[in-house]
Specification:
With 765 residues, the chain is of the alpha+beta class. The chain is built from 23 helices and 14 strands. The protein has helices at residues 2-11, 13-30, 49-59, 81-95, 149-163, 176-210, 213-237, 246-275, 280-307, 315-345, 347-351, 369-379, 381-396, 417-428, 451-462, 486-490, 526-537, 549-583, 587-612, 617-620, 633-663, 666-695, 701-733; strands spanning 68-73, 100-105, 109-112, 137-144, 170-174, 404-405, 435-441, 467-472, 475-478, 481-483, 508-509, 512-519, 545-547, 629-630. Strand 9 (475-478) and strand 10 form a beta hairpin. Helix 13 (381-396) runs antiparallel to helix 23 (701-733) and helix 21 packs parallel to helix 23. The two termini are 39 Å apart.
């Protein structure tokens, strides 16, 4: 099939190139503005108890985390007449904005849509939970209609009105809809920066590798087609499912890196065939038969790794799977179509010429450094295996101290105004720092005098370790005591009934009752997890659903933990079967899985050492260490890094298999295979590192973490796994490398990949 594809591309080379250019332009136009259609969520597990609690809070109680939070700061006090008047005017302006479903503020209490005219007219609600301890800052929370793009459009209209000068108040804005908007803005900037840094640096590196301007531009052209196709794929996916904003940066960088990678393999093999004396057309066909087979198997392996993310229900991971698999296949198809066409249209420009010939090794000096390294390693295979494995395991040790959490506003640059506002919210309103929403579905305190039961339950929760306070329909509680509210004093209620307080109105509805519990620790600290467990276990008047950041994280973590063994097993089985078909060996796929995992464990240790503990910030760029690692990051990193590592493993195994088909000797085949593949996977790793390091300059810490960790995995793979560990293990395995029980074997040639026969000799030359 590959040969037929190559013949088609060579015979219709100009048509293929023109159609590719038109397709890239069309895909670029189709994918234009895709960032505005991407979502920033996808961390929570659908159908989990916390997700059900969140659905009840937002849909039936009009509660939960507000979309927009305004911090209105006065020079003296928010209770001053001028500040109160400005605050009431701000609330009135906001609740008249299209798309706003309700406003809650210190001065007015909850204001549903349609009640703006009477909101705050002579009101003295004074909800102390919405005022800072120094009485200089008051909160205004805004709820928006719909979600996603609709909420984003409302935020764009709302922010100018919210932040307009309104003396004596100074207003800052935060909230998850505002943070989503900021994340979109910084992601677009990061993508542009990545392209501006990666493309010129990659072109210079390709120019040095090939020595020809045309040969250097060809992989970039294939990469441009793959990236344009990626944008179109993402745009199409947004029409049928939620797609994470993080998928844009990761998959675009991955598409560029793999397109360059695959093009490099094909062009390099073409030049080898030309140097061996093959005619131009035969050289193209031979390059596609050999290197093209490597490209196809590599793309299949990377795609299988990414599709493993589909076994997780979180749409952040699912969108990474859809987009990642799409871009990998696009990169492979683009390389297999465009490179043969370009080689046929411009054979002399791509196949000959070297601008750096004077800087390279003279042709009369042998280029056998990789072969000699392999032979030295295979003279002491046990020592090399023990030392290399031990070093990688030592690098992995920090991962024992990993603490998982979720990403929050701190993935953005610390000087972003949204981040500063969120930090002021944490510092000035500790009661809102770690909310846990305890929902009692279908249970109402106004039925048959149940207000006393709710009062007793809230008092029990307020004395639990780690609880700062509790608010519900019967009042506000701290350490078992109720905290008087000004609104309740104005309109006292009869004993055994609910207070007539607007600030407490939304805690009940026909759907049931809920309680807002404030924790003392950060949402993802171990103390918060223990608090959530205590709240679930506390004696309650009805079955309990726990919501909020801590509960959402626990549910997502438990979901990932349940699915992870199945995902890893499926990925390992699929990779094993693919490599079994490719190598026709049982041992080589097992060896590939084992050594690839070693480089990943080391990079996971670096992930904790750098991004959780905050070391080496001067090297990787500024970010905010949170003391945790997002629970989804190791899963995504594993799929990305493992896929790239398999790419190099497949290249090396193919070259070793070709040499073994000629010599029948494992030692000489391994040395010859490393000599042939070493320059290729080194150049490929350098090109991939250029793209990943450009991505590592991202201002979004989540993207920086993925890029740095994957880049480190590529470095370890290139420096340790391929040149040291693989030859040592191949030498130790000997004849077992080529064992395949009871399957029919066909003869292999140098051009049809690895051959599993019986090795007649294993001596070192």
């Amino acid at each position: 099939m590959l040969t037929s594809l190559a013949r088609f591309s060579t015979r219709h080379c100009r048509t293929v190139l023109v159609l590719a250019a038109l397709t890239a332009v069309a895909c670029g136009l189709l994918g234009h503005g895709v960032a505005a259609r991407l979502a920033s969520g996808g961390w929570t597990a659908p159908g989990s108890p916390s997700a059900r609690a969140e659905a009840l809070l937002t849909g039936r109680f009009h509660a939960g985390a507000p979309d927009v939070v305004l911090l209105a700061r006065a020079p003296d006090s928010v209770d001053a007449p001028a500040a109160r008047a400005a605050g009431l005017a701000l609330v009135g302006r906001l609740c008249h904005e299209p798309g706003v479903t309700g406003v809650d503020s210190y001065w007015t209490g909850p204001v549903p849509r349609g009640a703006c005219r009477t909101a705050g007219a002579g009101s003295t609600v004074d909800d102390l939970a919405l005022r800072s301890a120094d009485a200089r800052t008051a909160l205004v929370s805004v709820r928006l209609e719909g979600g996603g793009r609709a909420a984003r459009a409302t935020v764009e209209r709302l922010l100018p009105a919210a932040t307009a000068p309104r003396a004596p108040l100074r207003v800052q804005v935060t909230g998850h809809a505002v943070l989503d908007r900021a994340l979109e803005r910084y992601s677009e900037r990061d993508l542009l920066r990545t392209e501006l840094l990666a493309v010129p640096a990659t072109l210079l590196l390709l120019l040095f590798v090939f020595g020809s301007v045309a040969a250097a531009c060809l992989p970039l052209a294939v990469g441009a087609v793959a990236v344009a196709g990626t944008l179109a794929v993402l745009r199409a996916l947004t029409a049928v499912t939620e797609v994470s904003a993080f998928a844009l940066n990761i998959t675009a960088a991955m598409g560029l890196a793999l397109a360059i990678d695959y093009s490099l393999y094909l062009v390099a093999r073409y030049r080898e065939e030309i140097a061996a004396g093959l005619p131009q057309e035969e050289a193209v066909l031979s390059a596609v038969r050999t290197a093209g087979r490597i490209v196809a198997v590599s793309a299949a392996a990377v795609t299988l790794c990414l599709l493993g993310l589909l076994l997780f229900p979180l749409y952040l991971l699912r969108s990474m799977a859809y987009a990642g698999a799409g871009v990998v296949l696009l990169a492979a198809v683009a390389a297999l179509l465009l490179v043969p066409a370009a080689l046929s249209c411009f054979p002399r420009a791509i196949g000959r010429g070297d601008l750096f010939a004077r800087l390279r090794r003279p042709p009369d000096r042998p280029r056998d450094g990789w072969r000699r390294l392999a032979l030295r390693v295979m003279r002491r295979p046990v020592l090399v295996t023990v030392v290399a494995t031990g070093a990688l395991l030592v690098l992995a040790l920090p991962f024992r101290q990993v603490a998982f959490g979720f990403s929050d506003d701190r993935v953005l640059p610390r000087d972003a105004p949204e981040v500063r506002a969120t930090q002021e919210l944490r510092d000035g309103f500790p009661q809102l720092r770690n909310p846990v929403e305890v929902v009692l579905p279908g249970w109402r305190p106004d039925d048959r005098g149940r207000a006393g039961e709710l009062d007793a339950y809230a008092r029990r929760l307020s004395v639990l370790p780690g609880v700062l306070g509790v608010r519900t329909a019967t009042g506000s509680y701290v350490q078992g005591q109720d905290v008087p509210l000004a609104c309740a004093a104005e309109a006292p209620s009869a004993p055994g009934t609910l207070p007539r307080c607007p600030a407490l109105r939304n805690f009940t509805s026909p759907a049931g009752t809920w309680l807002a519990v404030s924790g003392t620790a950060d949402p993802y600290a171990p103390e918060s997890a223990a608090l959530a467990d205590r709240l679930r276990a506390a004696r309650a008047p009805a079955p309990v659903l726990a919501g909020g950041p801590t509960a959402q994280f626990q549910d997502a973590r438990d979901t990932l933990a349940r699915r992870l063994p199945w995902t890893l097993g499926a990925m390992a089985a699929a990779t094993f079967l693919l490599l079994l078909a490719f190598t026709r060996s049982v041992f080589l796929p097992l060896k590939a899985l084992a050594v690839n995992l070693l480089s990943l464990t080391a990079s996971f240790g670096a992930m904790v050492f750098i991004f959780q503990q905050g070391h080496l910030m001067w090297l990787v760029g500024d970010f905010t260490p949170t003391g945790t690692i997002s629970v989804v990051v190791p899963v995504i990193t594993f799929c990305l890094a493992f896929g790239l590592s398999l790419d190099y493993e497949i290249l090396l195994l193919a070259r070793i298999g070709e040499a073994h088909a000629r010599t029948g000797d494992t030692v000489r085949a391994t040395a010859a295979g490393l000599q042939a593949a070493g320059p290729l996977f080194t150049a490929s790793a350098a090109l991939v590192l250029v793209v990943l390091l450009a991505l590592a300059t991202a201002e979004v810490a989540f993207v920086k973490l993925l890029a740095v960790t994957t880049a480190l995995s590529v470095v370890l793979d290139t420096v340790t796994i391929r040149p040291l560990l693989v030859p040592a293990v191949m030498r130790l395995a000997g004849r077992a490398n080529w064992w395949l029980p009871s399957f029919p074997r066909r003869s292999a040639t140098a051009s049809d990949g690895p051959h599993l026969g019986t090795s007649p000799g294993e001596e070192l030359s």
